[in-house]
Amino acid sequence: MQTKKLFCAGVLATIFMIMSGGACWAASPKIGYFDIQTVLAKSTWGQRAKREFEQKQTRIKGEMEGKANQFKKLREEYEKKAPMLDEAARTKKAKELVEKQQEGEKALMQSNAELNKLSNDLTGPIVDKILQIVIDIGKKEKYDFIFEVGKGGIVYAKDEYNLTERVVKELNKVTPRK
After folding, report:
1. What is the rounded distance in angstroms from the CA atom of residue 117 to the CA atom of residue 15?
2. pTM for the whole thing?
3. Pairing, β 145-148 against β 31-34
4. CA 32 to chain CA mean position, Å
5. pLDDT, tens only, 34-86
6. Cα separation of 177 and 165, whole Å?
């Protein structure tokens, strides 16, 4: 009977410790988070990459608008002259228009692919460096967890744990010179 009472008391004590958060068993974890999009937007390296991307994007957009305007003029010219052309000439001009449209669509797809590749080429090394900085901070400062806000699924976090500005400062220290 005595053994049964001791066993029940032990079980109740264990349940009480578990329900009270198990503070006796483990220390609270050290948790941090950062926002990689903010780091990219605020860091020197990220801003430089954004400017380079936007310059290329503006140039390509201008080229695409020029081709679109050429196509529009050709189509308008065709529409004006079509009633005066014989069937063979009309068919030939319509075929040329379709070819021009297809060329334009292909050029647009190629330019989008080029911009996607450029974006990856510009941001890939920065993201790799950001992640390494975060890992280093985590190891040096003995964090248990560091989450990236956009991918980490954090709904709430205290601002005191936000490492974004710290990561921006560290990234600015290692930004390559051009």
Report:
1. 56
2. 0.70
3. parallel
4. 20
5. 999 999 999 999 999 999 999 999 999 999 999 899 989 988 988 898 888 88
6. 21
Rounded-to-integer distance, Cα 138 and Cα 4, Å: 47
Residues 68-77 pLDDT 10s: 999 899 889 8
Q: Do the Cβ atoms of 58 and 172 come closer than 8 Å?
A: no
Burial (CB count within 10 angstroms: exposed 0-12, middle 13-18, buried 19+), residue 67? middle
72 SS3 class: helix
Q: How far apart are CA 106 and CA 97, in angstroms?
A: 14
State both tokens at 155.
């709904």
Q: How far apart are CA 142 and CA 160, in angstroms?
A: 16
User: Could you give the CA distance from residue 99 to residue 106 in angstroms, rounded to a whole number?
Assistant: 10
DSSP state of 177: P
Which residues, listed in sequence order, are joined to residue 145 by a DSSP beta bridge?
31
Instruction: Give the type of residue at 87.
Output: E
